[in-house]
Design brief:
The complex is a heterotrimer of chains A (124), B (80) and C (912).
Chain A: E1 3-7, H1 11-23, E2 27-31, H2 34-43, E3 48-52, H3 60-67, E4 78-82, H4 87-96, E5 100-103, H5 108-119
Parallel strand pairs in A: 1-2, 1-3, 3-4, 4-5
Chain B: E1 3-5, E2 9-12, E3 14-16, H1 18-30, E4 35-37, E5 41-44, H2 46-55, E6 58-61, H3 66-78
Parallel strand pairs in B: 2-4, 3-5, 4-6
Antiparallel strand pairs in B: 1-2
Chain C: H1 3-28, H2 33-50, H3 56-73, H4 81-104, H5 111-125, H6 131-137, H7 140-149, H8 166-178, E1 183-189, H9 202-207, E2 212-219, E3 236-244, H10 246-252, E4 260-265, H11 281-295, H12 299-312, H13 318-331, H14 337-349, H15 362-366, H16 374-392, H17 397-419, H18 424-437, H19 441-456, H20 462-481, H21 487-523, H22 529-546, H23 548-558, H24 563-591, E5 592-594, H25 596-599, H26 602-612, E6 617-622, E7 627-629, H27 630-651, H28 655-660, E8 667-676, E9 679-686, H29 693-702, H30 708-713, H31 716-721, H32 731-736, H33 744-753, E10 757-763, E11 767-775, E12 780-788, E13 791-796, E14 800-807, E15 812-814, E16 817-822, E17 825-831, H34 832-835, E18 847-855, E19 858-864, E20 866-874, E21 888-893, E22 899-903, H35 905-910
Parallel strand pairs in C: 6-8, 13-22, 17-19
Antiparallel strand pairs in C: 1-3, 1-4, 2-3, 5-7, 8-9, 9-11, 10-11, 12-13, 12-20, 14-18, 15-16, 16-17, 18-19, 21-22
Helix pairs in contact in C: 1-2, 1-4, 2-3, 3-4, 3-5, 3-6, 4-5, 8-13, 11-12, 11-14, 12-13, 13-14, 16-17, 16-19, 17-18, 18-19, 20-21, 22-24, 23-24, 26-27, 27-33
The chains are: A alpha/beta (124), B alpha/beta (80), C alpha+beta (912).
C-alpha cells in the first residue's frame, strides 16, 4: 500500500486530507510541523509528502529544504499545499525543493488526480 | 445610457450595463404595468437580466437580434 | 455532526483563544516578532481550515485579519490600541459564530452582512478594499459537500438534460462522437453573490464559453418582494452544456474555477428522449421492420425507415425524439447496436432504457472502466511541466541531489503510466549523468524532449489509455467506499465498462497507426550534423586512446617484465580495436552520402552549356550510388563543376570540328565514380581533342614555370601535368591554350585539401581523362610513421605508393641526382633529410628504406631512416607559428603522449 505523510498544523486540514487519501486506498501518517515530519519521515518509508507551508517550529519551506539533504528522504516527491496562490509563493516552494503546488483548500478531485499521478498509483 | 423611459414603455437599446439595472428596477416599481421594448437590445448585463426575471415584466417587442431573442425568450418564458 | 466540522470547531476555539492572548500581549510588546508570527499562524490556520466549509462569512473575516497581520508582521504597519480592540471584537464575533456552528451547523443569518462589515473595517486599517478578499470565499459549499460525502464525479445524467431541446442534444452527441477531443461537458456555474463587484458579468462569461450549446438560468433564492430586490447581488445560477476539449473548458473557467463544477458526460448519457407517447400503429410497424433491419446490420434500410417517419412526426412526440436519436446514431460513424435496439424498443414501449440497465453480467463488471479524460492527461502534463520549470530554476548545490532524485521519481511514475517502461532506462542514465556532473540540465532537456513527444503525439490518444485505467481503478475504489452500492452507481460503472469496449477497439487501431508512423520516421531520421560531427570527434578520440594500449603492453613487458599482463593487454587491445573499428565504420556510415547528390546537378548544366556553345554532347553518369563522406562529397562539388566546364569549353569540339576529325558528331562526357577500398575514384572523361603537350610546354616555359633544360627533357605526360601548376592557367592564357587550363591549380588544391589527389592523362585528338582520388572520409586518416634522424614523422598512407628496402649498391647516379630502377622503371630519389633541411648525414647504411610516393603523376622515392608502424589518427591542423609551414599537414597525439607531426609530402616535394 502506498504511504503518504501529511504535514499540516491544522487538525481539520489534516483530517480532510486524510479522508481523501484514505478514500483512495493510501496509508496516511500525520505530522503537525516540519520537525515532527522529519522524525516520522525517517521512521518509515513514504511514497509522497503532502506539506503545508505555514507551520510552527519548522515551516514547510524549511522542512523541504532539510529533507532534500537527507539521503533517506531526498528522493520523495513533495506536494506543497498552501492558501497562497501567488506565483512567487509557488516559486519559493519549488526553489526549496517541492515538486508540485496546490492552492488550499484544493478541490477533492483535483487533489486526488494529482496525488494519484504523483504517487505513481500504477495499475496492478 | 441605453435605457430610455416613456410612460408605459421602457426602451432597452444596445448594451445594457449593470448601472441600468437599478434604474430599470425603479421604473418597473413605479410602473408595474409597464412593458419593455427590447428591439434594439444587443446585450444585457446579468444584473439587468435578474431584474427582468424577478419582476416578470412584460416584453412588448423582443430583440431583433434573433440570437439574443432566442435565449432570452427561453429564460424569461421559462421562469414564468 | 460531521467529524471534520467538529474538529474545526475545536481547533478554531483553540486558535481564537491563542490569538486573543497574543493580542493582549502585543499591547505591551507591540514589536515582538515571535508573538506576531504566532498570532499570524493562528489566524492563518483558521482561514485555511474554514475554506473547507460553507462558512464564507467566517473565512472572509479571518482572511481580512490575516492580510492585516501580514502587513503588520512585515513592519509596514503598527497596531494601535484601538486596532487591537477591533481585532478582539472580530475574534469575539468569530467565537460566537463557532458556538452557533456547534449548535446548528450553520452561521447566523446575518453573518454575511456582519462579516462583510467587520472585514471591511479590518481592511480599512491597511487601506485595502474589500473586493479582493471576496474572490476567495465564494461557494465553498461545493468543496465541503465533496469533502464530506466523497462524491467527486458525475455518475448520472442530471434530469435537467431533458429540458434541452432534443435536436440540440443530438447535435452535441454527433460532435462528441465524431471528434476525438471534444467531450460533452456539463458546467454548473454558481456565481458568487458579490461577483458583480469584481467586475464579473456571469451571463457574458456563459455566452462566451467555448463550445456552448445550451444554457439555462435559475434563481439561487426566491426573488422575494420586488421592492427589496438588490440588483447588485447576483441571485442566479447557470447550467451549461458544452461540447469542447475539457482542458479548454477548464482553461476558460480558470479564474472562477471555485464557482463552477465541471463534469464530463458520455455522449451516450445525452440520449434522453422525452415527449408524449403516441399509440399510432405506424410506429409499431416501424418497430418490427426496424428490429429486423438492425438484426441484419442493414443500417441503410433502417435509415430509410426512420427518415420519413422522423420528418413527419410531431416534434412533441416521444417517438419523434427516439427516431431523431436513431437518426443521429446512424449518421455518426460508430454504430452501436445495443443503443439502436434500446431506442427502437423505446419507440414501442414509450420509455427509454439505456442498454446497460438491462445488462448485469459479472464478466462485464470486471472489465476495466475507462473514463475518457483529457483531464488526466492535462494533469500529467501539468505535473511534468512543473518539473521542467523546477529543473530550470537555480539550485543550491546542497539541494541538487534531492531535486534530481525527486523529479526523476515523479517522471518515472508518470512515464510508467503514460508509456510503460520505454523511457525508464534512459531516464535512469540521464539522472545519473546529472548527479555525476552536479547539473540538472540533462534531465531538463530529456524531460523537455519527452514532453514535446507526448504533446505532439496527440496526447489524448494512446498515451491516455493507461491513465484512463488508473483513474477508473481509483473510481472503483471510490464506488466501493460509497458502501450503499446503489444500483444506479453500479450500472453506471457497467455503462462505462461497456463503452470502453468500443473506444478501446478504436484506439487500438490508432495505436497501430502510430507505430507505423514511427517506423516511417526512423527510416529518415534527421539529425543535426553537429551531433554527428561530435560523435565523429569522440570516436576519433577513442581511436587515439586505443592506440595507447600497445604502448602499455610494451611497457608491461619491457619495463616491468610481466609478460602475462602484456599479453592480456594485447588481447584486450584486439577486442577494443575491433569494436572501435566497427564503431568507426558505423559512424562513417551515418555520414555517407552517394555521389549522385553531386552528380545530379550535371545533366542540366551540361545541357544548358552545350546548347549555348552549340555543341552536341551526351552526358553519361556512372557509379552514382558510390558513397563517400558527406564532407568529401561536398568538397568535390566545386572542382567537378570546374572540370566539367573545362571539358565542355575546351575539350569537346563542335559537331563540325568532330565530323572533320572523323569522329562521331556527338561528343561524350562521362562522369564516373568507382569505390576503391577506403578511397573513391571520380573520373571525368571526354572524347574531345585532348591536350597538346607541346603547347603546354611552350606556355610553361614562357611563364617561367619550367627551365629551358626542362623544356627539352620533360616527358609528354609530365607536360600535361603542368596544367595543374599554379600560374600556368589564367584567363588570358585559357584562350591561347588549345585545351584546358582554366583554374586547374585551384581544382588541385581543393582536392588535396580534402585529402585527395588529382591526375590527368590525355591523348591528343582522342580525349582527356581527369581522375580524382578522394578518401572515403576525412575524419580518421591512416598514416605511416617514419623515422628520420631519430625523429618520428607521419606520412599519409594515401601518398605512399609502396615501401621498399634496397641495397645501397642499387642506387644509380644520374648527373647530380640519385635514382633507382624498380621493376624496369627509373625512379628519382630524394633524401628526406635534405628535404627537411637537416644538416646531419645519415650513417652509411647498406640497406636503404625508400618510400615511393606519387607526385604530379610521377613516382618519386624518398629515402628515410626507417619505416615504423602504420596507425589511425585524427589529424588536427596546426595553428599558430607552425600553421605557417605548409609542409606539415597537421599533428596528432600518439598513444604514449608524444606529438606526431604529419608531413605533407606533396608540399614537401614542391619545395625541392
Amino acid at each position: 500500500m502506498k504511504k503518504i505523510l501529511i504535514v499540516d498544523d491544522a487538525m481539520t486540514v489534516r483530517m480532510y486530507h486524510r479522508q481523501l487519501m484514505e478514500s483512495m486506498g493510501f496509508e496516511v501518517t500525520e505530522a503537525e510541523n516540519g520537525i515532527e515530519a522529519l522524525e516520522k519521515g525517517m521512521s518509515d518509508t513514504f511514497d509522497l509528502f503532502l506539506v503545508d507551508v505555514n507551520m510552527p517550529k519548522m515551516d514547510g519551506y524549511r522542512f523541504v529544504e532539510e529533507m532534500r539533504q537527507i539521503p533517506e528522504l531526498q528522493s520523495i516527491p513533495v506536494v506543497m499545499v498552501s492558501t497562497e496562490e501567488e506565483e512567487s509563493d509557488k516559486e519559493k516552494a519549488y526553489l526549496a525543493g517541492a515538486n508540485f503546488y496546490l492552492v488550499k483548500p484544493a478541490k477533492p478531485d483535483e487533489l486526488k488526480d494529482y496525488v494519484a499521478l504523483l504517487i505513481g498509483d500504477e495499475v496492478a | 445610457m441605453s435605457v430610455a423611459f416613456k410612460k408605459t414603455i421602457a426602451l432597452l437599446e444596445g448594451e445594457c450595463s449593470i448601472e441600468d439595472s437599478e434604474e430599470l428596477l425603479n421604473w418597473i416599481l413605479l410602473n408595474p404595468k409597464g412593458k419593455l421594448n427590447l428591439k434594439k437590445l444587443s446585450y444585457l448585463h446579468t444584473a439587468v437580466l435578474q431584474v427582468l426575471m424577478a419582476s416578470q415584466v412584460k416584453i412588448s417587442i423582443w430583440p431583433s437580434d434573433t440570437k439574443i431573442a432566442s435565449w432570452l425568450q427561453a429564460i424569461l418564458l421559462e421562469s414564468k | 455532526m460531521d467529524p471534520m466540522l467538529e474538529s474545526f470547531i475545536q481547533e478554531s476555539r483553540d486558535n481564537l483563544e491563542a490569538a486573543a492572548k497574543c493580542f493582549l500581549d502585543l499591547e505591551n510588546k507591540p514589536d515582538d516578532q515571535e508573538l506576531l508570527n504566532d498570532l499570524f499562524r493562528s489566524i492563518h490556520t483558521m482561514k485555511g481550515s474554514s475554506g473547507l466549509f460553507d462558512i464564507g462569512a467566517f473565512t472572509r473575516v479571518v482572511h481580512a485579519a490575516e492580510d492585516v497581520l501580514d502587513i503588520v508582521r512585515e513592519g509596514k504597519y503598527s497596531l494601535t490600541s484601538d486596532d487591537i480592540d477591533l481585532f478582539l471584537d472580530s475574534l469575539d464575533l468569530a467565537g460566537a459564530w463557532i458556538d452557533q456552528l456547534e449548535s446548528s451547523e450553520q452561521l447566523p443569518d446575518d453573518a454575511d452582512s456582519v462579516g462583510h462589515e467587520i472585514a471591511e473595517k479590518l481592511r480599512g486599517l491597511i487601506g485595502q478594499e474589500i473586493k479582493k478578499s471576496v474572490v476567495k470565499v465564494e461557494d465553498s459549499k461545493q468543496i465541503n459537500s465533496h469533502a464530506v460525502t466523497k462524491k467527486d464525479d458525475f455518475d448520472d445524467t442530471p434530469d435537467w438534460i431533458t429540458n434541452i431541446d432534443q435536436s440540440q442534444l443530438q447535435k452535441v452527441y454527433k460532435l462528441c462522437v465524431q471528434s476525438d477531443n471534444k467531450i460533452a461537458v456539463i458546467v454548473n456555474y454558481r456565481p458568487d453573490k458579490q461577483c458583480f463587484f469584481n467586475g464579473d458579468d456571469p451571463l457574458l462569461t456563459v455566452l462566451n464559453a467555448v463550445g456552448l450549446h445550451w444554457f439555462s438560468v435559475e434563481k439561487k433564492e426566491d426573488w422575494g418582494e420586488l421592492e427589496s430586490l438588490d440588483p447588485f447581488q447576483c441571485n442566479i445560477n447557470f447550467k451549461l452544456l458544452i461540447a469542447a476539449d475539457i482542458t479548454e473548458v477548464k482553461q476558460y473557467f480558470r479564474y472562477i474555477i471555485e464557482q463552477v463544477d465541471i463534469f464530463r458526460i458520455e455522449p451516450k448519457q445525452l440520449i434522453r428522449p422525452v415527449g408524449e407517447h403516441s399509440t399510432n400503429d405506424t410506429y409499431q410497424l416501424f418497430v418490427s421492420e426496424g428490429l429486423a433491419a438492425l438484426e441484419n446490420n442493414d443500417y441503410e434500410s433502417l435509415k430509410r425507415l426512420v427518415m420519413p417517419l422522423h420528418e413527419i412526426g410531431n416534434a412533441t412526440l416521444f417517438q419523434t425524439a427516439c427516431l431523431g436519436w436513431i437518426r443521429t446514431l446512424l449518421e455518426s460513424d460508430v454504430q452501436d447496436d445495443s443503443l439502436l435496439k434500446s431506442l427502437i424498443d423505446a419507440v414501442r414501449q414509450g420509455e427509454y432504457l439505456s442498454p446497460s440497465l438491462t445488462l448485469d453480467k459479472p464478466s462485464e463488471q470486471s472489465k476495466t472502466m475507462i473514463e475518457p479524460s483529457n483531464k488526466l492527461s492535462a494533469s500529467s502534463i501539468n505535473i511534468l511541466k512543473t518539473q521542467l520549470k523546477i529543473l530550470e530554476m537555480p539550485c543550491p548545490s546542497s539541494l541538487l541531489v534531492g531535486r534530481v532524485l525527486s523529479t526523476q521519481k515523479i517522471m518515472q511514475r508518470l512515464f510508467k503510466t503514460i508509456d510503460g517502461d520505454k523511457k525508464l532506462a534512459d531516464l535512469d542514465s540521464v539522472s545519473k549523468q546529472c548527479l555525476a556532473t552536479s547539473k540538472c540540465d540533462k534531465l531538463h532537456d530529456f524531460l523537455a524532449e519527452c514532453l514535446e513527444q507526448y504533446e505532439n503525439n496527440n496526447p489524448s490518444e494512446p498515451s491516455q489509455k493507461q491513465n484512463d485505467i488508473s483513474i477508473s481503478k481509483d473510481q472503483a475504489k471510490v464506488t466501493a467506499v460509497k458502501a450503499e452500492g446503489k444500483l444506479i452507481e453500479r450500472t453506471q460503472d457497467l455503462k462505462s465498462g461497456e463503452r470502453s469496449g468500443i473506444k478501446y477497439g478504436r484506439r487500438a487501431g490508432d495505436i497501430v497507426d502510430e507505430v507505423d508512423n514511427t517506423k516511417h520516421q526512423i527510416k529518415t531520421l534527421r539529425v543535426d550534423q553537429e551531433r554527428i560531427d561530435s560523435l565523429m570527434d569522440l570516436m576519433g578520440e577513442l581511436v587515439v586512446a586505443k592506440n595507447a594500449m600497445p604502448y602499455l603492453a610494451k611497457r608491461a613487458q619491457e619495463e616491468f617484465g610481466v609478460r602475462e599482463l602484456a599479453k592480456e593487454i594485447q588481447s584486450q587491445y584486439a577486442v577494443i580495436n575491433r569494436l572501435s573499428e566497427e564503431l568507426q565504420s558505423t559512424v562513417m556510415g551515418i555520414r555517407m552520402v552517394p555521389v549522385s547528390s553531386v552528380f545530379q546537378r550535371f545533366p542540366r548544366l551540361v545541357r544548358d552549356l552545350s546548347k549555348r556553345l552549340e555543341k552536341n554532347i551526351q552526358l553519361v553518369l556512372e557509379g552514382e550510388e558510390t558513397e563517400a563522406d558527406k564532407n568529401v562529397i561536398e568538397s568535390l562539388a566545386d572542382p567537378l563543376i570546374h572540370m566539367v566546364r573545362n571539358s565542355l569549353d575546351h575539350g569537346l569540339e563542335t559537331p563540325q570540328e568532330r565530323i572533320a576529325a572523323g569522329k562521331n558528331e556527338q561528343g561524350r562526357l562521362t562522369l564516373k565514380a568507382t569505390p576503391m577500398d577506403d578511397q573513391v575514384l571520380i573520373e571525368i572523361i571526354d572524347d574531345g581533342k585532348g591536350i597538346d603537350p607541346n603547347i603546354i610546354k611552350q606556355k610553361a616555359y614562357e611563364k617561367g614555370i619550367i627551365s629551358e633544360i626542362q623544356l627539352d627533357e620533360i616527358s609528354d605526360q609530365a607536360a600535361v601535368n603542368l596544367i595543374f601548376a599554379a600560374g600556368l592557367s589564367s584567363k588570358e592564357s585559357a584562350s591561347d591554350l588549345s585545351g584546358r587550363g582554366v583554374g586547374m591549380d585551384v581544382v588541385r588544391s581543393a582536392v588535396e585539401d580534402a585529402g585527395g589527389q588529382v591526375s590527368v592523362t590525355s591523348v591528343l585528338g582522342k580525349g582527356t581523362r581527369v581522375g580524382l582520388t578522394l578518401p572515403l572520409t576525412m575524419a580518421v586518416a591512416r598514416v605511416m610513421m617514419i623515422d628520420v634522424d631519430q625523429q618520428t614523422y607521419g606520412i599519409s598512407m594515401e601518398n605512399i605508393r609502396e615501401t621498399v628496402r634496397v641495397s645501397a649498391d642499387n642506387i644509380t647516379r644520374i648527373k647530380h641526382n640519385e635514382a633507382i630502377v624498380l621493376r624496369d622503371k627509373l625512379i628519382p630519389l630524394l633524401r628526406m633529410r635534405d628535404l627537411l633541411g637537416l644538416q646531419t648525414r645519415a650513417k652509411q647504411q647498406t640497406e636503404l628504406s625508400i618510400l615511393i610516393v606519387e607526385y604530379n603523376g610521377a613516382e618519386i622515392g624518398l629515402i628515410i631512416d626507417n619505416f615504423l608502424e602504420g596507425i589511425d589518427i585524427i589529424q588536427k591542423p596546426l595553428d599558430g607559428v607552425m600553421g605557417a609551414f605548409p609542409i606539415y599537414a597537421g599533428a596528432t597525439l600518439l598513444g604514449d603522449g608524444r606529438v606526431l607531426l604529419i608531413l605533407n609530402v606533396l608540399e614537401l616535394l614542391k619545395c625541392r
